[in-house]
Amino acid sequence: MNFELPLHGDLEEIAKIVRERIVSVTSKNGGHVAPSLGTVELTVALLSVFNLKEDHIIWDVGHQSYAYKILTGRDDRFDTLRKLGGISGFPNRSESPFDLFGTGHGGTSISAGLGLKEAMTRAEKEGKQISIIGDGAMTSGLAFEAMNHVEELGKNHVTILNDNDMFISTGVGALSRWFSRTMTGPTYASIRSEIKDILHNLPPFFRGPRIIKIIQKALNSSKSLLTPGMLFEGFGYQYVGPIDGHNINELVETFRDIKDNNEPLLIHVVTIKGKGYPPAENNPRKFHGVAPFNKKTGEIIPSGPSFTAYLKEYLPHLFKRDKKLVAITAAMPDGTGLSKLQELAPDRVYDAGMSEGHAVTFAAGLAAGGLHPVVAIYSTFLQRALDNIVHDVALQNLPVIFLVDRGGLVGDDGGTHHGLFDISYLRMIPNITLMAPRDEHQMVRMIEAAVLMDSPVAIRYPRGTGSDQKNYTHVSPLPLKGEWLVKQKTEYHTVIISVGSMVREAKKAVKMVGDEGIDVALYDLRIIKPLPNELFEELKQMKVSRIVTVEEGIVAGGAGSAIMEELAQREMNISLFPIGVEDTFSTHGTQQQLREMEGLTADDIANAVKRGLNG
């Protein structure tokens, strides 16, 4: 179906069609179902009032933008959502002229929106700039830094707070309680309705624009005492709300009311995550971001055991043994495997909200006070706390354990979510021990080793299926060295050194070249920093001429680079060919498709081995 902008006609019917389209496609492709279902009416109302040739919309994070994609010329491609070569699951500047700013991480929309509005002003362009931010992203420090700039630069800027009282999992902290606060007396909606009735019955003289403005100002001032309006007005906003985010008529009326107001505005819209699809509405945490599911029942199609699922079962056993351990997450207890521990020991799990920098420095404070914090954050989000890791943890050599989830290519979520840079940005920092397990059992053995250490440790592991290990309780600490997986001879021309998730592909490659009569040794690095000293002694004894390294991360500054640097320091005359992700952010598709695209398969490794023999 082709939708013309601005939208017109039966807006309720358009919302129904869009909602059905979202459920139909995501049931096959997976995706961020609940967030996008919660913003259908909001999107329809916005696109019926504002003209995108003049007015610009930025979605914070962007996992709630599916309706926007459908209604801005991408309905005919929506079946390709998150597929290789298809449209992204997040706003993407290269995908559509209506995606003015690419997003994927939280808290960016107000900063970017103010910048975009200032650029429009300097180009003497008219129009509104609208930043749509969720209550979770509003806990980001970046959002507050941006709001601190609103009074100065916010002319014709509108911030829409999409408040679903969920964040990604559940509300965190004082800000959440403020958003969720139940107003005493009449609700805003009923007050608004009563005011309309009064105005309608006033004599014509009293219905003039001046008296209406006075009444509206009084209404806004009084409701500020009952809602978070005081907070936002302190930043220079005019506050409007809270408004029912599923009442299209009320949304449209509000947007029309504020369209000609050029002062900074914050419109507080209350929505229900998963609205209109009962399985998602009843379990919005489960449907925040999901794999394909049965459309009729809402049951998720199983995809096999994962590193995170194993961690979820293991951590309660570990924490039961060690009372100094505490855990920290940044608004993602489900995604990082902390949810079960949170249920069993809520006083030992801290959710810092969508504030990764604060989470890391908070962990540093806990460690300085004698506790042993475990910080579980996705690789792509941990990037946001780099200075905190350097300045607050590593510089003071504090014993913080970083569980770096989703290290490598994450698949369908694409460039904003790939964990390609953690090896490079962590291995450059003094005092940190950096590890990468090949399976989930090795992961927990690394955690057992980290618990015994009195310095920072980072353990990076991939998204997706592992080897279905079941031993959660009797786990010994892993020795801080690598392991030879294939080494039957005393001398080898070529050695493959594999890192973490790439061990499986490397094993296949060894078999492939072995079938062609080529003997290759295989080493699982395990400890990326510090590099095992004995590895280089053994390479010398084995008279190795060529090394092929393989890692699921960016080549620049990665594990291969580390080994190359060490070889140079030791003046060892061994050539090295690094396999990894080259100078790219990659794209979206299945993990296997992306590994094939980025040259991370057994075939690629085998070919690198054979090229070295022929060169």
Topology of this structure?
Layout: H1 11-29, H2 33-37, H3 40-49, E1 56-59, H4 66-74, H5 109-122, E2 129-134, H6 141-147, H7 150-153, E3 157-163, H8 173-180, H9 188-201, H10 209-224, H11 229-234, E4 238-244, H12 248-258, E5 265-270, H13 278-282, H14 307-321, E6 325-329, H15 339-344, E7 349-351, H16 356-368, E8 372-378, H17 379-382, H18 386-394, E9 401-405, H19 422-427, E10 433-435, H20 440-451, E11 457-460, E12 483-486, E13 494-498, H21 503-514, E14 521-524, E15 527-529, H22 533-541, E16 546-554, H23 559-569, E17 575-581, H24 591-597, H25 602-614
Parallel strand pairs: 1-2, 2-3, 3-5, 4-5, 6-7, 6-8, 8-9, 9-11, 10-11, 13-14, 13-16, 16-17
Antiparallel strand pairs: 10-15, 12-14
Helix pairs in contact: 1-3, 3-4, 3-12, 5-6, 14-20, 16-18, 21-25
Task: Please explain how this structure is put together.
This protein is α/β, with parallel strands linked by helices. It has three domains: 41-62 and 102-181 and 227-271, Thiamin diphosphate (ThDP)-binding fold, Pyr/PP domains (Rossmann fold, 3-Layer(aba) Sandwich), CATH 3.40.50; 307-460, Thiamin diphosphate (ThDP)-binding fold, Pyr/PP domains (Rossmann fold), CATH 3.40.50.970; 483-614, Rossmann fold, CATH 3.40.50.920. Helices cover 40% and strands 14% of the residues. It is built from 25 helices and 17 strands. The strands form three sheets. The chain has a seven-stranded mixed β-sheet with strand order 7-6-8-9-11-10-15, sandwiched between helices. A five-stranded parallel β-sheet has the order 1-2-3-5-4, sandwiched between helices. α3 crosses α4 (66-74), α3 packs parallel to α12 and α21 crosses α25. It is globular and about 80 Å long. The chain starts with 10 loop residues before the first helix and ends with a helix. The model is unreliable at 180-189 (pLDDT under 50).
